[in-house]
UniProtKB/TrEMBL annotation:
Highest rank taxon of the organism: Eukaryota
The species this protein was found in: Phaseolus vulgaris
InterPro entries linked to this entry: VTT_dom
Keywords: Membrane, Transmembrane, Transmembrane helix
Spans traversing the lipid bilayer: 50-75, 96-116, 128-155, 212-235, 255-276
Residue ranges of every copy of the VTT domain listed in the record: 115-235
Identification of the protein by name: VTT domain-containing protein
Amino acid sequence: MTYFNEDGIHVDGDHTKDVMRNHDGGEYIKLRWDPQSEAPTTTDRKGSRLWYWVKSGLCFLCLGLLALVAIKWVGPLFIEKAIIPMINWGTNRFSSLELAVVVFATIALFPTLVLPSSPSMWVAGMTFGYFFGFLLIISAAAIGVSLPFMIGSIFHHKIEEWLEKYPKKASLLRSAGGGTWFHQFRAVALIRVSPFPYILYNYCAVATCVKYWPYLVGSLVGMMPEIFVSIYTGILIKTLANATHQHHTLSATEIIVNVAGFCVTVGTIIFFTVYAKKKLKELRKDDDLLLK
């Protein structure tokens, strides 16, 4: 609605226009912007915050229901048909020492072959638990991230040419190059936690001029959330496998504990992923400012 008030002010929607007269008698319009018309009110802020917590609560509720369905019905069926035969085969085929060697070798060599090593980490959690499983995985992972780094240095120029085809990914990876030892360490750790495929980063890191030691330490620190999640997953699979093999259902307490553990695990992955992406964006902005 458009109208003139008594003071010669022309009002149109949220914008106010002063109608002025020049020396020749003609009119011109002087625009004025009312910031209060676009400023968010306290009610809007409270409403958006409330809606955020409602969405978060519904998300965790859905995750809990999904975990309940998986643990109660889908999980036992899959475990009975696939997991238990595999566990029995591994137990009968290998001793604990031999299984440790197999797990160590696969975690150390699979990244070089661009193959996922998460199943081997699950086996480490199933067989050796948190303490020995962690020591086994972290020592093998040190080799697993070092071999591609050394091999990639041979094809340094080829990798640089390949990265030029993906400028956004390349700028993300190059944020780890240069700077102090701590800067490189932090950037590598964040890249490991972020959704960037860490198997590819093992080879691409050499094209970012990052040094070996911050690369190694940052990689191991950044992989720790994934390692603990994988160990917990292995322990959970073993718990469900024992319950299925012995033909008894989990108690209400066991179900609640496992569902809660599953939700915490998923929440941990989401938290570290979002945190890493946020920090990487800040890191890239800082690097862009330095380059300017």
